[in-house]
Amino acid sequence: MAGLSFDNYQRNQLLAERSKTVPQATSTGTTIVGVKYNGGVLIAADTRSTQGPIVANKNCAKLHRMSPKIWCAGAGTAADTEEVTRLIGSNLELHSLYASREPRVVSALQMLKQHLFKYQGHVGAYLIVAGVDPTGAHLFSIHAHGSTDVGFYQSLGSGSLAAMAVLESNWKQDLTREEAIVLASDAIEAGIWNDLGSGSNVDLCVMEVGKDAEYLRNYRTPNNREAKQRSYKFARGTTAVLSQRVLDICQVEEESVDIELEA
Amino acid sequence: MNGIQVDINHLKKGEVSLGTSIMAVTFKDGVILGADSRTTTGAYIANRVTDKLTRVHDKVWCCRSGSAADTQAVTDIVQHYLELYTAQFGEPSTKTAASIFKTLCYENKDNLTAGIIVAGYDDKNKGEVYSIPLGGSIHKQKYAIAGSGSTFIYGYCDKNFKEDMTKEETINFMKNSLAQAIKWDGSSGGVIRMVVLTKDGPERLIFYPEDYETL
Amino acid sequence: MTSIGTGYDLSNSVFSPDGRNFQVEYAVKAAENGATCVGIKYKDGIVFAVEKLITSKLLVPGKNRKIQTIDRHIGCAYSGLMPDGRHLVNRGREEAQSFKKTYATPIPLPALADRLGQYVQAHTLYNSVRPFGITAIIGGVDDEGAHLYMLEPSGTYWGYKGAATGKGRQSAKAELEKILSSKPDLEAREAVKEAARIVYMAHDDNKEKDFELEMSWCSISETNGLHKPVPKELLDEAIAFAKAENGDNSDSDDSSDDSDNENDNKKKDAEGDVKLE
What we know:
heterotrimer, A: Glutamine Phosphoribosylpyrophosphate, subunit 1, domain 1, six-stranded antiparallel sheet, B: globular
């Protein structure tokens, strides 16, 4: 069938009539941060994804690549952060191909904010955009309604308050790369420990002027599951075999056919 | 909505807003814009060093209040229009810039929460201030104040504003006014930013809490 | 297709092998045969003077104005097909209003000339339309001072100190060159007189019909930047000056009623057929 499908809308209407709640999209109760340092910028995120009170994924990836050297950390509606970064990333590549130039962070920012503003907040993507381009290293944040902020450090998501507490107390001017990595990871960890919506591991992406971006997946894994003290497997033979029967559930007929091949 | 009244106080859920203290004042050599730097989402300060003074042309700037997303979108469009205008006809007047702002704010009044003060300098008309409040009307003023913090300083500004002040007098007047607005308004805070617009182009100033809280 | 001609002049937007657009050239011819229009740019303004040929004795003197106002500060005079001119002026008015609406400031003359130029040029491109059969002089005052432009059927426009179109343009141009080189800083009232004199002089070259002189001006000193008709007293003064300078020839023309009948291309008047210029 051509055209738009309103099936889900009708379903939601029906559910709304019959219950007090309607289905909600998966929201990444999240901690994401971005920090600028001398000679570059980095972003970091936790890896927990939630559906209401349930952890939907213990090790999801919230850092998205928009171009080789422009990365984006996403909070809010998981599907929207995923899709909007993919869409704008795609257009960014077309633009850079057309212009024969490396894509700029401000271009990504402008395209993202115009897209999000157009959807008046219905695309629930809260993003931290960072990257390096011919004009240097940049760090921005974008809210779902399309407003943007600039700064040396940013935090977003449900764990942003915990992360911001760390950033505000430990950030200083002229950070080195190593100091920035520690600061960002600590900020994410603050989210992991103190925010219910955030948890598991720390992902990191470091973008340094004049270098390739470094994606450090699971840079910190402070929630490794301990090995079980005991095995709960039942030993072989725990259950006695009383009888055994093998059934043919289908008949197999074999026939070979010669095929003549023409030259 | 009945088409006459506008629900002006309603911010879409979770939207970032500029609960703000902003002002622009004409003086002897031009005009000065001033603003606090607080951006809020509900009770949380989303940005404590926001720049609410935005360039739309070399010597035409604006102070933004209301929804951050809306005012940024509007200023981006005005900036674009003025770039086209400059290419075709040369330097725009402050009035022209304000008129474009007004058209956007008026024609989209149902979908926007934007209170904007446009201020600029042009050689013919010198410093000018246009206030564009929520409905999209436009008011030419000697000085203008707006944002949630402005309510506290109407009296102060009325008493202390004088025409043709010097740059230093104007800066002091604005610093005092904004300090009071920030003091009494919970949605305003951070640093005080200013932009001085004269024949010599824009000049940026910044005042930290320790500079203005003790006034 | 008939066997007459090369076929390169049958449609708009078609070039001849040597790179000409015949339809546009025919349109220029239409403009060249129109009544003479003169425009002068002086110190702080501009003045228009047009030769209004009296095509019927029943026409009310002083009415049927040919010079039009595009915006409060801009006037326009043209020779050629009058309806084409009126259409162009309408378009100019729309452009001026639209500019004023978006930018809250009166349209600058270069901007208007450019927009009208583009509009006229667009009429050389499509089969569904024909070029404008007019050459228009557009002038007025804006923030940058006085401007005078002449717009041709091709869409070309140039800025002038003095411009002339229509039948008497050759001699008018020669006279404009003389005046504007000897007196480059004309005052408003001087310019009015000179413009009147030039129209009377240019008319001398082809005295076939009676005419009425129509004038308008737009200056900072005299009209506060608005485009207005030249006041009666000044117009009369200018006409008197023009007649005196031109040896009072046209005065005798005015009074001789039967001289028309001797002129063979006046037959249409007798039949009451009013031909619009």
